[in-house]
């Protein structure tokens, strides 16, 4: 019998939607509260109910493979307690069973990590059959059970949690199960969209480099991100980007800056991320050339203009500024403000006026516009 059924306080006072139901907060909200971190979205598990009961109380079903419902007023997610059984390859190869006879403990045992398998009853009592509280206190990420190897997404989630909770170690036996996922080919069943979902979350963590570190440690990195070059230099640039609070596209560009362009198709990143990843290597090369040209004052305007044009900076100044911030994490000696002043000078040139003065010859218009922009650049440092 679960703790709430054994004399625990019943939830739902003043809330007819859940009054009389046996509900628990589970997963991340409980873990983060134990860590003293701000509470995010709450996930609820309902024990002893059925889809019909939930519908009669005004809940809206949203789950596909298993019954998940939205609260009629708060719109928080309430899932019926469920078990799962492996039925095929990959993370979709599961059959779920949800019903009034599934206990809270059975539901917790199907989760990935012990720190995510803690429930809190309405009276504040913690239900922790798998030792998750002890692992939170010891700062250890540990798998719940041997079924960890049945779902390759758990490997990605482990790596992503390692990036978020950088002071947590990974239990050696858990890392060995990750290697088994790779050896058995389960990791090859991951689809690019699912890989990207986890990579995006990991990249926005405070220590994003731990995610590829963990994937590399178990042999999964080359399988989930083929063509990704991950080394100390790339790791250092990404760490600087995280420390400076760069956004997802900038961090992705830093991650991919030495990698095979084909990686973009494998990870299926959004277009903004792919744009920066495509442009950053070329910008770094041109910045190096521009640095060499600094010694020759006569060459500077031409080199600067070529660099601005190569990045389409005149039309996309915001993207150019984002690229500069990412590049500065690699070079360390870049002056982004100086480059933005150069761009501002070039953008003061009235292209329409120059074209009208040059006549109708396209070649003359091009040369006149270039000369005007070069003259504007000569006036800035």
UniProtKB/TrEMBL annotation:
InterPro entries: CCA_bact (IPR012006), NT_sf (IPR043519), PolA_pol_head_dom (IPR002646), PolyA_RNA-bd (IPR032828), tRNA_CCA-adding_enzyme (IPR050124)
Coiled-coil stretches: none
Keyword S-adenosyl-L-methionine included in the entry's annotation: no
Family: Belongs to the tRNA nucleotidyltransferase/poly(A) polymerase family.
UniProtKB keywords: ATP-binding, Magnesium, Metal-binding, Nucleotide-binding, Nucleotidyltransferase, RNA repair, RNA-binding, Transferase, tRNA processing
Cofactor: Mg(2+)
PANTHER family in UniProt: MULTIFUNCTIONAL CCA PROTEIN (PTHR47545:SF1)
Source organism (scientific name): Castellaniella ginsengisoli
Chain ranges of the Poly A polymerase head domain: 23-142
The protein's name: CCA tRNA nucleotidyltransferase
Ranges for domain tRNA nucleotidyltransferase/poly(A) polymerase RNA and SrmB- binding: 167-228
